[in-house]
From TrEMBL:
Protein name, UniProt field: Glutaredoxin
Keywords per UniProt: Cytoplasm, Disulfide bond, Electron transport, Redox-active center, Transport
Matching Pfam families: Glutaredoxin
Organism: Oecophyllibacter saccharovorans
Sample GO molecular function, one term: glutathione disulfide oxidoreductase activity
Superkingdom to which the source organism belongs: Bacteria
BP terms from Gene Ontology: cell redox homeostasis; cellular response to oxidative stress
Biological role stated in the UniProt entry: Has a glutathione-disulfide oxidoreductase activity in the presence of NADPH and glutathione reductase. Reduces low molecular weight disulfides and proteins.
Length: 86
């Protein structure tokens, strides 16, 4: 199974939605608490190529973007394919 990491911050509705989808699909993931100004947030920005919003989602170390991109992958039937291709 693919390694899924999601950098979030408390109270973020997009983070809640993305985490909810991962849980609903029973996809194992690591959630990293990354509020503004933390080392974890800086790591997410660096790894994502400068994206400053949360959530930032990585599959096998590759940035797939945020909540909108995750939902688009699911909607287009490509999320399961991406996770299996690991």
């Amino acid at each position: 199974m693919a390694k899924v990491e999601i950098f979030t911050q408390p109270g973020c509705p997009y983070c809640i939605r993305a985490v909810g989808l991962l849980k609903q699909k029973d996809i194992p993931f690591t959630e990293v608490d990354a509020p503004r100004g933390t080392k974890a947030r800086e790591e997410a920005i660096e790894r994502s190529g400068g994206k400053r919003t949360v959530p930032q989602i990585f599959i096998n170390g590759t940035s797939i973007g945020g909540c909108d991109e995750l939902l688009a992958l699911e909607r287009n039937g490509k999320l399961d394919e991406l996770l299996k291709g690991a």
